[in-house]
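Q: What residues go here?
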């Protein structure tokens, strides 16, 4: 059970903030007070690593520099800018929220109003409210939950509602209410760079003397997490059919349950008349709990099949192309450069 009477909370706040100011990573969303840019970063960072987000963040803001530009963007342009980040409902919800903000006439400036935006949950509302507006709302993401579960210590399953409730209460007690945005970022930074899931770097931790898990030798056992669902493995084959600088694609319908309106490379069962000439290689691609082993083959067709379209390779950055299709094309290009027929 969480012990919210952790010795000297003021010392933890002071040491953590001093460490953050000295060791924080230089990230672009930390150089702005613009709530729009902070909001975009928080949505992108949902279930996505910082390294993966960095190039997308800059390109996205160059394309949609403010909430008005995002609100009026064509959906194809929006999805093309997001292609490769995954969880595409985030992009669609961003635009729904942008339209909502334009209708309001201003960016929402309180926690409750932020939480009303499509795609904004408890964590994102607290993050934007505290970082952009200095409001005293504690965040609880995976990194913060790990730090708190070790500080407390919390011996229960962090996936359970009861434990999440206790950790949230602990986060509120620990929050530096004078500097909530900076403190929330410090906790997240500690979890991302020092208080790691495996082999935590305790000697580098500024609050190690206050960590109950370390005192009890439990730092490698906490947090406790329920068993993950067993991974599903599937095999898949994609065809790269190229002609005069164009590649054959098909487009998912607007009603598709996943990747709606995205362009995909064909599979053999879709084109039984296609002639496979050779293979470029294979790669692995994981979506949530499913891992695909994808073989990439080159093929030819006599004419464009019904329901398919030739897309110029030079224009693929302007349309939403699925990640598996992009990986397949990259593998094909790499194999050609290395001399594979």
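A:
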């Amino acid at each position: 059970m969480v012990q919210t009477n952790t010795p000297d909370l003021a010392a933890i706040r002071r040491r953590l903030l001093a460490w953050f100011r000295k060791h924080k990573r230089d990230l672009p969303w930390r150089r702005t007070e613009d709530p729009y840019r902070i909001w975009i970063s928080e949505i992108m960072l949902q279930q996505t690593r910082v390294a993966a987000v960095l190039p997308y963040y800059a390109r996205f803001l160059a394309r949609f520099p403010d909430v008005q530009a995002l609100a009026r963007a064509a959906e194809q342009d929006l999805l093309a800018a997001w292609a490769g980040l995954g969880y595409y409902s985030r992009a669609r919800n961003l635009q729904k929220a942008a339209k909502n903000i334009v209708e309001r006439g201003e960016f929402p400036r309180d926690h409750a109003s932020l939480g009303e935006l499509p795609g904004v949950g408890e964590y994102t509302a607290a993050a934007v409210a505290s970082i952009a507006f200095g409001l005293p709302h504690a965040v609880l993401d995976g990194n913060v939950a790990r730090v708190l579960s070790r500080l407390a210590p919390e011996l229960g399953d962090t996936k359970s509602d009861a434990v999440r409730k206790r950790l949230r209460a602990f986060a509120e007690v620990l929050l530096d209410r004078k500097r909530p945005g900076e403190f929330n970022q410090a906790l997240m930074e500690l979890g991302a760079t020092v208080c790691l899931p495996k082999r935590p770097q305790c000697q580098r931790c500024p609050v190690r003397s206050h960590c109950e898990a370390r005192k009890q030798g439990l730092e490698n056992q906490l947090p406790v997490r329920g068993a993950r669902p067993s991974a599903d493995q599937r095999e898949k084959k994609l065809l790269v059919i190229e002609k005069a600088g164009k590649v054959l694609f098909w487009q998912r319908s607007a009603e598709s349950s996943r990747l709606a309106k995205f362009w995909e490379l064909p599979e053999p069962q879709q084109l039984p008349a296609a002639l496979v000439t050779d293979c470029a290689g294979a790669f692995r691609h994981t979506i949530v709990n499913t891992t695909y082993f994808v073989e990439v083959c080159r093929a030819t067709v006599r004419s464009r099949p019904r329901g398919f379209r030739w897309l110029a390779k030079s224009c693929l950055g302007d349309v939403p192309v699925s990640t598996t299709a992009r990986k397949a094309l990259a593998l094909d290009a790499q194999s050609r450069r290395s001399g594979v027929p």
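A: Context that may help when evaluating the design: The first strand starts at residue 232 and ends at 240. The chain has two domains: 9-215, 232-337.
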